[in-house]
Amino acid sequence: MPKFATQDWCKEYCAAINGNEAYAEAASDWEGDFVFVIHPDGPLDKELKMWIGLYHGECTGASMVEEGEYKILEKGEEPSGGSPPPYEAEYLYEANYTDWVKILKKELDPIRALLSGKAKVKGDMAKIMRATKAAQELVRSTTLIETEFY
Amino acid sequence: MKGFLGKLLEVDLTSQTLTDLELDESIAEKFLGAAGYSVRYLYDKIDKDTDPLGPQNILMFMTGPLCGSNVPTSGRFTVCAKSPYTGIWGEANCGGYFGPELKKAGYDGIIIKGAAEKPLYLEIIDGNAELKDASNLWGKGALETHDILKESDSLTRIACIGQAGENLVKFANIVSEDKVAGRTGLGAVMGSKKLKAVAVRGSKRSYNAADPEAFKAAAKEMVDMVTNSFTTQMFGALGTPAAVDKYNVEGELPIKYWTQGEWDNAYNISGATASGTIFSRQYPCFACPIGCAHKASVTEGKYAFEGERESPEYETIVSFGSLILNDDLESIVQANYLCNQYGIDTISGGSTIAFVYYLYNEGTISADDIDGLEPEWGKIEPALEMIKKIASREGIGDILAEGSDAVGKKFGISQDEIATALGQEVPYHDLRSAFGMALAYSVGTTRGPCHCASDVYLALLGLPLEDLGFEQVDRFSDGEIMAKDTAILYDYRALYNSLVICLFCSPEPKNLADVIESATGINFDIEQIKKTGERIYTIKRLFNLKMGLTPNEEKLPEILLRPLEEGGSAGKSPDFEKLKKLFFEIRDWDLNTGYPSNEKLKELELDHLV
Fold it and tell me: Are the Cβ atoms of A113 and B243 closer than 8 angstroms?
């Protein structure tokens, strides 16, 4: 059972997304990689960051990253086209560890987490608000992995 | 009392006399300003027999104790009277710049009595008030009226009616600087008094808080909270239609006159689409860091225009979009423009029009019944024609101008097929997607069905209201917690509407208490927030009971309760009677009379009113 936010978990998460047909349909026109930032709280004592490549309903890769290994693109800025690293993402989504756990356990909707201030996002707001269904499926994909939490 | 200027202007249009009055501090201490002050003031003066469109009705324009300060969204003002549409409490608040300008001009509010024989407008410049001839303005649109009255001074702030108000359209609104005091037909009250506009201009901007240092700190905390919130990020970028896509997925978006649960074309009319197509710039209200309002530009095509117009808000997008299956955003800009020019509430006006679409497409009525119009789903042109007919009361417009219930009555339609409650059209957060809205639309309502008086749909997204006792609960719950949450919100928003601040401003309640206390000098804490809110809410309830409201009337039509077949709320519907009973119990109201118990009235210091 992989531990949440490890390289092994990233690999299984990517496979889970790619096995989720509902995600493939909901995100068929989605273009934009994410960096997830997990702030330490509760049992987690250090910040973790994860890059997820997402393109047209597929996960193109997922990896744990360190500060300096990724770049959040400004609105309208095109990716350089080079293979990662450096990881270039259009979106950054951040929350405390305990809220991440709630999101992963489907106790907290990722969009509601934003509206309640439990999570923050950086990136094109129009695309995010349009992607409610895709976001739900992205979360549902995590439930397909048996996860060990901290 | 600090926060207020302490001065009101009383205008008697019959005798054309203007009198300065002192603000009654004993009212302000218990009910604050804006809607709270107005309802306490009007409670003694309006009766069941008062004709809402007669000279005995009293129209109040009121600001609140925070207006003119830098507290986020505090630049709003409220208009109140007995509603000609529902016959109960009439209230609508409005953003823009009119409220702070009225204070700069020297008044906390205006009390308008009587009725003029000929059209007039009220001008207030730096404490000097004057009634002026409005013959040249009568017959003009609201936006046109703004232009004329601003010719000599573009910084004059206006609140006025369009042709709909003049023609006593029952859901006519009051337009101010491209914003509107939209609901309950207060534009018709203004029209009945032959008052075309109020124009204000002041040069003295000063805000006197009771404890300036504490106020500065509390206001800064609120500014920081609001500025950094996702709500600001979202509404600032995408406007109030930001969540159209989300609502569509979750079954909250009303579609095809409330009969469809999901619509593939919804994204074409969403804030996301608007931001990439029609938005030209943000157009924030006074002291608002959110800036949900946007200007729109359409340079090509059938609905092209020069310059900028107001971009439609969420409710308007539904009225002229999903409710009639129209996904042409530019055409909705046009519908919005017409409604603002004529001074028509886009919810009641739009829903009445959508009801005609529903009847036509169900085959219940034909083109012959509606002046030859053919309102097929998805076609906007008949709706644009109906807007014009409503404003002028021409042909079928004369019936439409009385609202959906009148249309239903004319064509012999069951009340259960009309999306109204207490005579007013229900706004656009489908109660089958957030069950508490069933109460907000029909039970214990302050001004008829309303999405702002108890915004459970919004609060359940995670607003920081735990200190008030609000609990997060499943949106499909029809149990005690949902009934209690709805009641808590009714009270809290009654307080909001007496300050008056915007729903999108969501500080911690403790922070809001600190702001109120440091502004006014009244001791305020969480308990005071709850008690004052409940007192204001309850006096509105008493006002409505005095107007003849009974619990039997507090019900919903079947069309709003019938489970939908598809979408995010498919198969869901609340047990309405159960929720209603729970709500009455929580409120300590009598199920037969609707009155609060004597103990409750004493607790709220309202027992002397009954």
Answer: no
Domain ranges of chain A: 7-142
Q: Provide mean pLDDT across the span A38-61.
A: 94
CB contact under 8 A, A129 and B249: no
Q: Which residues contact A89 (CB under 8 A, 6 or more apart)?
A: A32, A33, A34, A35, A51, A70, A71, A72, A73
Contact B88, B190 (CB under 8 A): no
Where are the domains positioned within chain B? Answer: 7-201, 238-424, 431-505+525-609
CA A82 to chain CA mean position, Å: 21
Which residues of chain A lie closer than 8 angstroms to B463, CB-CB? Answer: 115-116
Q: Is domain B238-424 given the CATH code 2.40.50.150 in the classification?
A: no
Minimum CA–CA partner of A126 in chain B: B272
Q: Considering only the beta carbons, identify the residue of B231, B237, B463 that sits closest to A126.
A: B237
Spatial separation of the C-alpha atoms in residues B500 and B33, rounded to whole Å: 8
The pLDDT assigned to B361 comes to: 98
Average pLDDT, chain A: 88
**Per CATH, which fold does B431-505+525-609 belong to?**
1.10.599
pLDDT per residue as tens digits for the range B306-337:
999 999 999 999 999 999 999 999 999 999 99
Q: Name chain A contacts of B267, Cβ cutoff 8 Å.
A: 130
Tell me which chain A residue has its CA closest to the CA of residue B246.
A132
Give me the mean pLDDT over the A131-148 stretch.
85
Q: What is the CATH number of domain A7-142?
A: 3.30.1050.10
